[in-house]
Amino acid sequence: MKARIHVTLKDGVLDPQGRAIHHALEGLGFGGVEDVRAGRLIELTLADGTSDEDIDAMCRKLLANMVIENYRVELA
Amino acid sequence: MKSAVITFPGSNCDRDLAVGIERVTGHAPIRLWHGDQTLPEGLDLIAVPGGFSYGDYLRSGAMAARSPVVGAVVEAAERGVAVLGICNGFQILTEAGLLPGALMRNAGIRFVCRTVGLTVENASSRFTALYQPGETIHIPVAHHDGNYFADDATLDRIEGEGQVAFRYAEPVNGSARDIAGVLNAKGNVLGMMPHPERMVEPQHGGTDGARLFEALAQSVLERA
Q1: Which of A66, B87, B129, B163 makes a 20 to 30 Å CA pair with B190?
Q2: In sequence order, what are the residues at sequence separation of 6 or more whose Cβ sits closer than 8 angstroms to the Cβ of residue B192?
Q3: What is the pLDDT of residues B118-168, one digit of tens each?
Q4: Does residue B144 contact residue A20 with C-beta atoms inside 8 Å?
Q5: Is residue B224 scored above 80 in pLDDT?
Q6: Class of residue B118 by CB neighbours under 10 A (exposed 0-12, middle 13-18, buried 19+)
Q7: Which range marks the domain in which residue A51 is found?
């Protein structure tokens, strides 16, 4: 089984990288981009039957920094 | 003073830090490796140096914070041993949960490398006792991820408890409330982005960093 972990910055946390991307898009002439937030995608290939609790623990203990980031798990 | 400096793959300030501690205190630190599971007996200070441990993979300090030696550092910190994290060391200590908050990409995106003014906010800790409260000292920074973040409730709490050790005298990297260095609640763990080990000899352009290591050595004598 595969799990895709989407790690994103919490609302209200300044995202300098997203701001730079936003600026670059504007520089390329794209209008109408109101905001850009950058995140990280981590794909885990897991043994069948890995519990949701274990995946959650992986996210909380390492994959996301809960001070600044949220995560969302997508099982495939 | 019996101290140790940890080296991770990618550390690059470990030697400077060891030399600085030895010059100031007269005692050479023991050098530890990231895979060490246990610490030498009787350490007074564990110093976590700057650099790019594990290539800054995942997040700055994230991998080092889960290394075997840092598990032992966390236990030692809980016993009251002094722990000093500088630059990447500060990032490692926040990732390990020894200090509140997190260090994010500089607000201006660029790497910042220059000597900055710092205001001493807490001059009563074992790290800062030889500074005057409110004094401005000059210490170099060299970092890409030094933008200190914590939620407002945490910031209010650490300010109220005197856990803010140093503040930038002028904005440097977007840090919340210009925070440059943070103590834990017990006052035995300090993390700071500026590099005191780069300001210990007159040839460095100043010696403001030396007083931090002197203060630590004095606190050891007072505790003996």
Answers
A1: A66
A2: B84, B85, B86, B87, B90, B165, B166, B180, B181, B182
A3: 999 999 999 999 999 999 999 999 999 999 999 999 999 999 999 999 999
A4: no
A5: no
A6: buried
A7: 2-75
Lookup: tokens for B39: 């610490």
Question: Which backbone phi and psi does A72 adopt, to 5 degrees?
Answer: -135, 135
Q: ipTM of this predicted complex?
A: 0.89
| Residue among B13, B87, B95, B143 flagged as catalytic | B87
All structural domains of chain B: 3-223 (3.40.50.880)
Q: How many domains are there within chain A? A: 1
Task: Choose among B109, B90, B105: nearest CA to B193.
Answer: B90
Which of B59, B108, B109 has the CB atom closest to A65's CB atom?
A: B59
What whole-number distance in Å separates Cα of residue A59 and Cα of residue A37? 20
Q: What is the distance between the alpha carbons of residues B52 and B24, in angstroms, rounded to a whole number?
A: 25
Residue B87 catalytic?
yes
B8 touches B54 (CB < 8 A)? yes
Element housing B79 (H / E): none
Q: Which CATH number do you get for residue A24?
A: 3.30.1280.10
Tell me whether residues B95 and A68 touch, CB distance under 8 A.
Answer: no
Name every residue whose Cβ is closer than 8 Å to that of residue B95 and which is 6 or more positions away in sequence. A65, B59, B60, B61, B62, B64, B65, B102
Between the alpha carbon of residue A59 and those of residues A65, B9, B90, the distances in Å are 8, 24, 22
Q: Which of B13, B34, B143, B197 is catalytic?
A: B197
Label residue B1 by pLDDT band (50, 70, 90). very high
